[in-house]
Amino acid sequence: VDTWNNVPLAPEDSIFKLTATYKVDTFPQKVNLGVGAYRDDNSKPWVLPVIKAASQALFNDPNLDHEYLPITGLPEFTSGAARLILGGDSPAIAENRVCSVQTISGTGANHLGALFLSRFYDFNGPKQVYLSDPTWANHFAIFRNVGIDPLTYKYYDPKTIGLACDEFLAALASAPDRSVFLLHACAHNPTGVDPTREQWNQIADAMLQKGHYAFFDCAYQGFASGDLDGDAWAVREFVKRGVPMLVCQSFAKNAGLYSERIGALHVVGSSTEVAKRVRSQLAVLTRSEISNPPAHGARLVALILNNPELFEQWKEDIRTMASRIIEMRKELYRLLTEEFKTPGTWIHIVNQIGMFSFTGLNAEQSQALIDKAHIYLTTNGRISMAGLNTGNIRYFAENLDKVVR
Ligand code: PLP
């Protein structure tokens, strides 16, 4: 018998496929705007100077070994990571009611958070989670994998290329009490559209009123504004206001540690006792899935978070990345509106936040950029701003202009 004859062929991951097609393209002016990874002005991956310094320090440390880490991760890493997202003055940390566990980057944090909810959350009816429409595509699979059904709430308004705030608030109001809402903490992927502080407060009001649970995904702290504290504002405000919540944290983008798979899950409990129990269960789940997490990325980030000099250097590196992206936004806006006088409004390019911009291009126009200009982007019209640089931005603007005319 052919044991696996009944296995259907799965489609390739669209983003990884896009990169593979880009790689084999021999056109000299090709541009990759698909992948969500930072590139410098020469289109090259950037190893942050602070990571080079921390790697050197690790290399020179005669006491490092390769023993197993504790199940919940490197303690200096998880405590530093909690302070980074929740704030050094967080009441939840001071009251010792945060449970922090090291995870396989942000994806692993999302998975562990989802798995924990599927086991222990008191769902008011079927196991469901509300995701923003649109969202990072992997969210759907991550929740389905643990038996939680993903539903969506309206988040993005194609007419304004901005937040559909009224519809979002209406979804919060009409969902059953104690529903779980996934929220992007900052730099929403794929739209680059974040709520304002005032809108976050309205969202918090609605969540408190209905007893909803906030499942924060924070993959871009520092990337949105260049300021680690500013980008954590919504999370900290929700903690302050007592919205029940957890946070998934990734160091892939803000530390350029994509392949090191370093992240954390923070569950904010109502008391020390609750946090202790949650932690014990997260340890049981982690033990059965990965036994214990990998050390290298945790050591690098722990060094940076606990050494004031390295921490300052990191903040500077983050500003370097965020400012380059913001510059590219301004230049693209200038080229489209002043030089090419491209039809349509383009102010959303500068208003959007973080690594991505939702251009407003439709699937046909996006495909035309790929086919005619060798400019690779996802067909929802999302571009990674990090793929643009002083050498290719004019070529991109010129071709964007052609496909919308
Ligand atoms: N969440 C969002 C919204 C993302 O965009 C990403 C990465 O693209 C992740 C989580 C997880 O990334 P990683 O697992 O590399 O930390």
TrEMBL record:
One of its GO terms (cellular component) is cytosol. Its EC number is 2.6.1.1. One of its GO terms (biological process) is aspartate biosynthetic process. Its cofactor is pyridoxal 5'-phosphate. One of its GO terms (molecular function) is pyridoxal phosphate binding. Residues 29-400 form the Aminotransferase class I/classII large domain. It is an enzyme of class 2 (transferase). Pfam families: Aminotran_1_2. Keywords: Aminotransferase, Pyridoxal phosphate, Transferase. InterPro entries: Aminotransferase_I/II_large, Asp_trans, PyrdxlP-dep_Trfase, PyrdxlP-dep_Trfase_major, PyrdxlP-dep_Trfase_small. Belongs to the class-I pyridoxal-phosphate-dependent aminotransferase family. Homodimer. This is aspartate transaminase. It comes from Thelephora terrestris. The lineage of its organism: Eukaryota, Fungi, Dikarya, Basidiomycota, Agaricomycotina.
